[in-house]
């Protein structure tokens, strides 16, 4: 591995006001030199070791593959910068997906460059005890925000050649712009270094298509994220008695607590939809009341520390027992999901799970008297009458993004299923509260069941099988968790 030593700030050359003061930047008072010397001396070793990231070898192979695909080009992949949440506060940083896929690097403001299959990671120098920014910069100073891997530390941990971020512009501006492909929209400064090219979109497209097939490290991380998610669903069930009469925010908060305890965060905004809110596909306000007799639709996933996310949905009776109407709806969606999962096999078209699930739903809606025409006619491409009650597609890719590989071309994303793909299978049935085509006793109820499916040579593997799906199993699971008094969550 190759690295450059971090740039050291020469305090004596830093625009000194006098021998006794150190200039630290615009709109900031100068720092007494005595304080600088006091703050930057007598510190022990930094907490870095000689370990290597567990994904380093996988990332190197990914870089090799994409480099060979564009061997005549220089590839520029920035991770992005902090995003302002409000005034001078930022959102918690999350690396750009393509950048992270190729590096496993979590540092902000970094940029990966691949030229002739040779990779260099450009990273900022540390604002450590060798510089006044250690204690004066509340944005990057390590006394404010914690230790960060700089140039040498990144070279070691990510097993990649590194260079100071300050060198990036010089290394790029002299290149023929037509030979540079950039992942744009993540770092405005990096975007400005090279004139946009018509071929720029080829790079994110190629990376999305590479990410369609998960390697063994990715599958293990997805399973880990799912396992943590199962724990989060169990937490929610234990909290339901406490949440009744309060609100969906309790549900969201309980699950999100598990996401932060076990992983990096939630993989997407948690949908904690009780009652009629379950008929709103992306209900993330989570400000409704949780009532006995209603169902709770919980669509949630933990994002693990390596940023792979689960995406699981369960619909459960808040009082632990499905009503007759709820059982009818749930059983129909369950049968549709069973058909969809069975269709998720190597060589099948991506749309096959959706089509299999829709046939079951359309037949069920016809049997209930809600669809007035034969299922075959309702499902016709020029009619699609069933969509009033089911609305969305059944599957999407899953990985580092909850809706993964979105830049892949449709002939790849929507073509054949290959071994190593991970997709969701998530049919739903939604009867709006004011839908006069639905019998009154079914209105205002929604059911969705979603699992994360790995496509294997021997058939679909349900990564989220640890959560029960069959209706009697769901009821028994809930009652079993409530019976374990030692694990109840106490919210009051």
Q: Care to describe what's here?
A:
This protein has helices at residues 33-39, 56-69, 97-103, 133-136, 142-145, 151-158, 168-173, 188-193, 202-211, 216-243, 248-262, 324-342, 352-367, 375-378, 387-390, 410-413, 471-483; strands at 21-22, 31-32, 74-78, 84-86, 89-90, 111-115, 118-123, 162-164, 180-182, 265-266, 271-274, 295-300, 302-303, 312-317, 422-425, 428-431, 445-448, 451-456, 459-462. By secondary structure, the protein is an alpha+beta fold. It folds into two domains: 11-211, Creatine Amidinohydrolase, Chain A, domain 1 (3-Layer(aba) Sandwich), CATH 3.40.350; 216-487, Creatine Amidinohydrolase, CATH 3.90.230.10. The strands form seven sheets. Strands 8-7-6-3-9 form a five-stranded mixed β-sheet. A three-stranded antiparallel β-sheet has the order 11-12-14, covered by helices on one side. Residues 1-16 have low confidence and may be disordered.
Layout of helices and strands:
Elements: E1 21-22, E2 31-32, H1 33-39, H2 56-69, E3 74-78, E4 84-86, E5 89-90, H3 97-103, E6 111-115, E7 118-123, H4 133-136, H5 142-145, H6 151-158, E8 162-164, H7 168-173, E9 180-182, H8 188-193, H9 202-211, H10 216-243, H11 248-262, E10 265-266, E11 271-274, E12 295-300, E13 302-303, E14 312-317, H12 324-342, H13 352-367, H14 375-378, H15 387-390, H16 410-413, E15 422-425, E16 428-431, E17 445-448, E18 451-456, E19 459-462, H17 471-483
Parallel strand pairs: 3-9, 7-8
Antiparallel strand pairs: 1-2, 3-6, 4-5, 6-7, 10-13, 11-12, 12-14, 15-18, 16-17, 18-19
């Amino acid at each position: 591995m190759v690295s450059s030593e971090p740039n050291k700030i020469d305090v004596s050359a830093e625009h000194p006001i006098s021998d006794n003061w150190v200039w630290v930047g615009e709109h900031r008072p100068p720092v007494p030199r005595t304080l600088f010397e006091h703050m930057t001396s007598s510190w022990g070793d930094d907490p870095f070791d000689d370990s290597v990231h567990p994904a380093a070898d996988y990332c190197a192979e990914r870089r090799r593959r994409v480099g060979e695909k564009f061997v005549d080009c220089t590839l520029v992949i920035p991770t992005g910068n902090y995003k302002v949440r409000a005034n001078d506060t930022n959102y918690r940083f999350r690396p750009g997906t393509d950048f992270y896929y190729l590096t496993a690097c979590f540092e902000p403001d970094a940029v990966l460059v691949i030229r002739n299959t040779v990779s260099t990671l450009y990273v900022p120098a540390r604002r450590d005890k060798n510089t006044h920014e250690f204690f004066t910069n509340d944005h990057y100073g390590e006394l404010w925000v914690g230790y960060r891997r700089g140039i040498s530390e990144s070279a070691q941990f990510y097993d990649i050649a590194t260079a100071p971020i300050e060198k990036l512009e010089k290394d790029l501006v002299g290149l023929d712009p037509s030979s540079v492909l950039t992942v744009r929209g993540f770092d405005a400064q990096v975007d400005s270094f090279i004139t946009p090219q018509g071929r720029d979109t080829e790079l994110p497209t190629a990376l999305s298509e590479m990410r369609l097939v998960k390697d063994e490290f990715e599958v293990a991380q997805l399973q880990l994220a799912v396992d943590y998610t199962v724990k989060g669903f169990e937490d929610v069930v234990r909290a339901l008695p406490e949440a009744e009469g309060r609100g969906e925010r309790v549900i969201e908060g309980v699950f999100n607590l598990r996401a932060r305890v076990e992983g990096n965060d939630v993989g997407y905004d948690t949908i904690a939809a009780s009652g009629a809110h379950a008929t709103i596909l992306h209900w993330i306000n989570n400000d409704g009341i949780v009532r006995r007799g209603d169902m709770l639709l919980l669509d949630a996933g933990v994002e693990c520390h390596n940023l792979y996310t689960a995406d699981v949905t369960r619909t459960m009776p808040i009082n632990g027992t499905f009503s007759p109407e709820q059982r009818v709806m749930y059983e129909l969606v369950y049968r549709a999901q069973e058909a969809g999962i069975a269709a998720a096999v190597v060589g099948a078209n991506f749309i096959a799970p959706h089509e299999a699930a829709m046939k079951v739903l359309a037949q069920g809606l016809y049997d209930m008297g809600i669809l007035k025409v034969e299922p075959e006619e309702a499902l016709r491409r020029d009619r699609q009458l069933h969509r009033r009650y089911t609305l969305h597609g059944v599957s999407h890719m899953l990985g580092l993004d909850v809706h993964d590989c979105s830049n892949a071309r449709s002939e790849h994303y929507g073509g054949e299923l290959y071994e190593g793909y991970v997709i969701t299978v998530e049919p739903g049935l939604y009867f709006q509260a004011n839908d006069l085509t639905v019998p009154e006793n079914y209105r205002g109820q929604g059911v969705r069941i979603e699992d994360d499916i790995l496509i294997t040579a021997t058939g679909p593997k349900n990564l989220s099988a640890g959560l029960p799906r069959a209706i009697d199993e769901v009821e028994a699971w809930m009652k079993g968790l409530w019976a374990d008094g030692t694990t109840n969550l106490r919210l009051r």
